[in-house]
Amino acid sequence: MAKAKRQNIREIITKRFIAFFIVVILLFVVLVFNLYKIVFINGDTLRNDVFNTYIKERSVDATRGNIYSDDGSLLATSLPKYRLGLDPSVYNRNATSEQKFKEHIDELANALADFFQDHTAEEYKNKIVSAKKNGKNYLLLNNRLLDFQERKKVAKFPLFNLGEATKTGIVFDKVNVRYAPFGQMAYRTVGYLKDKVAVGVEGSFNAELKGTPGKGLFEKMDKNTWRPVEGGEESVPKPGLDIYTTLDINIQDIVESALMKAMTTYEGDYGVVIVMESATGEIKAISNLSKNANSPTGYSESFNYAIREARDPGSVFKLPSMMAMLEEADLPLDMPVSTGNGKYHHYNGTMSDSHPMGTISVAQVIESSSNVGTMVLMKKVFASKPAKFYDYLKKYHLIESLHFQIQPNPRPNFPVPAKWDAFQLLWSSVGYSTQYSPLQMISFYNAIANNGYWVQPIIVSKATRADEVVIDYRASQIRDQAPLCSPKTLEKIQSMLEGVVTKGTANNIKGTSYGIAGKTGTAQRIINGRYIPGKYYTSFIGYFPVKKPKYTILVSIDNPQGHAEATYARQVTAPVFREISDNIYLRDMKLHRKLAGTLPDSLNKASLSHTVHPMDQSILYSNFGLPKVEEDGSWLQFKMDKQMVQNTPLSFPAKTVPNVVGMNLRDAIFTLENRGLKVKANGLGTVVSQSVPAGSPTRKNLLLQIQLQ
Length: 709
What we know:
The protein is of the alpha+beta class. β11 and β12 form a beta hairpin.
């Protein structure tokens, strides 16, 4: 009985074992089948899924092209920056790596904490040790971007300095960052690409600047970090083209300083200055300032009003109206024009002059900026043929878009004659019921400065790769083959613009040695479709020197306030023009004439010491009877005690800061800027001190301040 029971238990155990074995075999078969399915049937798909999750072919951005000023100074460039990462897995490879890690981890943590100043050494150590323990092959140590010098410093930290990067674990992830060497200079015009917003040269020339991206394999290290890996088909990115603008950094600096001073004085809503080279149409400076409560100065460049803002131009538009009338009717400048009591009534509208002028001449209509006089003449010349006036404006490039290089730039808002109401002809002739950008208006005035020939404004001259000019934008610049008007009309127009400054609405800026011609403009602002008394848009457009114009300048300030006299362009924008033209004249040696005249008798008994420019030597040593010296182009230290004269030749060693103490402003600027230095001057007279000592090493665009008295 017992024997049968034991046999029965053995059979049960055997059956259970066989059943368990069969289950194990079945599980093994299933496992093998699934493994086969994973490897051979679904392997490619799964491998691709994993590969695409952690290793991807990604675009490699090309190095973005640089943006330069007209003299080759960098306005925008791409600089490499680096994020600091670590591959902790290298310290798990062997006993030597483990030992190095233990010996130097505390030193490394202390160095990181001291350098970044955001976590304690203990926190950095725990972060690294934890990543090493978990077998991570990448750890972002800090998200701050390092420059090249900082990268070199970090590479010398303990543990990082013990061998090649592959052995020390240090990882530098390169990031190209756009950098503007001159800071906020021409900020909105040079532009930027940020948050999907593209503005200025950066935006309009993005296709040329960005280059052709390459491609390569990258391994995903964490949420936002990818590291290049070997293998796969790769292509090298092609760098972008370099863009050369027509901007002159010295003129740009003058413009921005003058406009900022005016804006803080008159508290305008926004202000614009454009400087154009008359013969070429090249924009040499452009500045836009608008109110910004978050800016330390209260103003910043947040919108390119010069190009994109269209407003009633006001009285500056009287000039194209006058040009059209002179061409059509050949009006004599001395012809009388009755303006009565200074009010012009037309149906339900009334246009007024600033004050009654009575009977004035055609020339005085422009010189005194008479609204009534302009309307009287317009009715006389074009009332029966308004479409003819429109045709003249079209010829003057005041109907169509400029197709300027920086986009977008609006088309002028000037209705076609078929849509004109009873007021349009007369009101538009004095700058109302139309909208023009500042750039559009200065382009017309520039044609007057350029002997009547209109040239399309440009701000980018060429695109290059190394020394090769890939695109010459000057070649496609539009230039009229015929002048806007006859020589007779041009002479009259230029005479009236000169009269505006010598005896008209801008006579407060007369008296320069070079001469200014231009036109003031003061227009009531439109708010919610209505013209508001006491709210004005002021402007002054002109050119200099008056005889052989080189520069055309527009200054406009919207809604000037803060002073009782801040109403008309005469008080607000014309003085800004004068400040800018004076400073440009001081810096542009080609505009200067040689000194002329005689020394006063009082100098015969005076003691003088002056550094003399080579251009002026012939006057001192010939015209004034002083001892003759050899004119070899060298600077001289001229000293005179009573009638005893001593001349000491001066030399300025190469690549050093010259000594300009004793020079006048013109000579000091000429000397310093020829060394590639930027100059900021204070005071009047001769230089008494300079911020960087003479003999110091020079570097391009070094800012040097000089004090005159």
